[in-house]
């Protein structure tokens, strides 16, 4: 199996926010925290596009690189997760992330910044799979239930696709071939290192995991 | 007076001995997803703990649920 990836097909996204709602409901995410958001590009201009954005579980995750307490880890499937027992809520990851994925709940009288919260690719956290402790801190562990992230599974137009990188890339490629347009995948190059934003593309080294 | 001073000096000298190490520990490793949750909410069609079955389950689910060209055409 390759690694887990998200693709958001801007040709299909209708900005319904179903993915956002599904995520909040599935993981009982607190007020003020949005693990996933729908962003409109070129809003108000003919040809505007919407995309659903969350943690992309980058190949070379900048959040992992900057974390001063080393709370991030990567699963065998390439999902970037973090340990809330180690996180100190410093916010460095929020500055480093190109997608604005790390979220900080503001709770308490003075709105103290809490521990970081982000999309887990519905893979929970370091606690035992499917345990109550894992659910309370990170939400449902759907991957361990043999399911895919709920945002993608609930997407009405199938704009958001999630799963094994090779499978989702094949699905998207087939769509582009059939419709003959819309081959751009926003954030794909930034997250999976084939091309950094604004930079010329660099092909992946031979034998590298896709 | 001399005794108090020597006791204070000794206490200051030994103060650092109570420091706990601040080196970063290894991040706790997670259980692999293919091991399952051991609960009944898991999707049907794969055996929890079987890596190959889990991988094929996710691939099949991605195709069935997300590839509408494959489903309808």
Topology, please?
The complex is a heterodimer of chains A (about 210) and B (about 70).
Chain A: E1 4-8, H1 18-27, E2 37-41, E3 49-53, H2 62-66, E4 72-74, E5 80-82, H3 92-96, E6 106-107, E7 112-113, H4 132-138, H5 150-154, E8 160-164, H6 165-179, H7 188-192
Antiparallel strand pairs in A: 1-8, 2-3, 4-5, 6-7
Chain B: H1 2-14, H2 51-66, H3 68-72
Q: What characterizes the major β-sheet of chain A? A: 2 strands, antiparallel
Contiguous low-pLDDT stretches of chain A (5 residues minimum) are: none
Terminal Cα separation of chain B, in Å?
A: 96 Å
CATH architecture of chain A: 2-Layer Sandwich
Between the first and last Cα atoms of chain A, what is the distance in angstroms? 10 Å
Got a strand count of chain B?
0
Structural class of chain B: mainly alpha
Structural class computed from helices and strand pairing of chain A: alpha+beta
Which word captures the global form of chain B?
A: rod-shaped
Fill in the keyword field for this structure.
heterodimer; A: 210 residues; alpha+beta; Alpha-Beta Plaits; two-stranded antiparallel ribbon; 7 helices; 8 strands; globular; B: 73 residues; mainly alpha; 3 helices
Can you put this structure into words, describing what you see?
The complex is a heterodimer of chains A (210) and B (73). With 210 residues, chain A is α+β, with helices and mostly antiparallel strands. Chain A has a single domain, classed as 2-Layer Sandwich (Alpha-Beta Plaits). Chain A contains 7 helices and 8 strands. A two-stranded antiparallel ribbon of chain A has the order 1-8. In chain A, strands 2-3 form a two-stranded antiparallel sheet. In chain A, strands 4-5 form a two-stranded antiparallel sheet. Chain A starts with a strand and ends in an 18-residue tail after the last helix. Chain B is mainly alpha-helical. Chain B has a domain at 47-73. Helix content of chain B is 47%, strand content 0%. Chain B has helices at residues 2-14, 51-66, 68-72. Chain B is rod-shaped and about 95 Å long. The chains are: A alpha+beta (210), B mainly alpha (73). Chain A binds chain B through residues 1, 69-73, 75-77, 81, 83, 85-86, 123-126, 128-130, 141, 143-148, 152-153, 158, 161-164, 167-168, 171, 174-175, 178, and chain B through 24, 27-39, 41-43, 45-46, 48, 54-55, 57-59, 61-63, 65-70.
């Amino acid at each position: 199996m390759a690694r887990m990836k998200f693709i958001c097909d801007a040709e299909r996204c209708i900005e319904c926010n179903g993915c956002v709602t599904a995520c909040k409901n599935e993981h009982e995410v607190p007020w003020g925290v949005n693990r996933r958001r729908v962003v409109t590009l070129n809003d108000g201009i003919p040809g505007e596009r919407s995309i659903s954005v969350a943690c992309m579980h980058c190949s070379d995750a900048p959040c992992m690189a900057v974390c001063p307490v080393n709370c991030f880890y990567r699963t065998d499937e390439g999902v970037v997760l973090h340990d809330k027992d180690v996180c100190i809520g410093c916010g460095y990851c929020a500055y480093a992330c190109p997608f604005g994925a790390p979220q900080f709940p503001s709770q308490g009288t003075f709105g103290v910044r809490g521990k970081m919260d982000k999309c887990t690719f519905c893979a929970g956290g370091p606690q035992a799979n499917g345990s109550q402790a894992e659910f309370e801190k990170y939400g449902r562990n759907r991957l361990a239930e043999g399911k895919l992230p709920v945002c993608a599974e609930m997407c009405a137009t199938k704009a958001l696709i999630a799963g094994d990188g090779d499978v989702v890339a094949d699905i998207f490629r087939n769509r582009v071939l059939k419709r003959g347009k819309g081959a751009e995948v926003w954030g794909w190059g930034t997250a999976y290192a084939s091309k950094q934003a604004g930079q010329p593309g660099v092909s992946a080294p031979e034998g590298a995991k896709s | 007076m001399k005794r108090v001073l020597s006791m204070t000096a000794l206490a200051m000298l030994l103060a650092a001995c109570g420091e706990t190490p601040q080196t970063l520990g290894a991040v706790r490793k997670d259980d692999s997803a293919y091991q399952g949750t051991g609960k009944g909410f898991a999707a049907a069609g794969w055996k929890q703990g079987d890596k190959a079955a889990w991988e094929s389950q996710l691939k099949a689910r991605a195709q069935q649920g997300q590839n509408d060209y494959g489903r309808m055409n």
